[in-house]
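Dear Dr. H.,

I hope your travels went smoothly. While you were away I took the liberty of generating a structure for the chain from your last submission, since the lab meeting agenda had it listed for discussion. I wanted you to have the full record in hand beforehand rather than looking at slides cold. The sequence, exactly as received, is reproduced here:
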Amino acid sequence: MMDFIVIGELVWKLSDEFLEKHNHVEWYKIRAFRNFAAHDYFGINPKKVWEIIQIKIPELKTNLQKIING
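The corresponding predicted structure, in token form, is as follows:
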């Protein structure tokens, strides 16, 4: 869960210009999940977390690789 919090914190540090330029990434959802993970830790649905790990994290990784590679 700390990894989700760290990822969300880093997204907050990205400029609005960057977020808008790469708006195909669900930045808002990443930020929102960070807040949920940090403040409602015991209310988190483990099945939802597993879904994020299996589906959303690989999508994020692919999107970030595309951004890095230009």
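Two observations you may find useful: Residues 5 and 35 are 7 Å apart (CA to CA). The helical segments are 2-12, 16-21, 27-39, 46-69.

With kind regards,
E. W.
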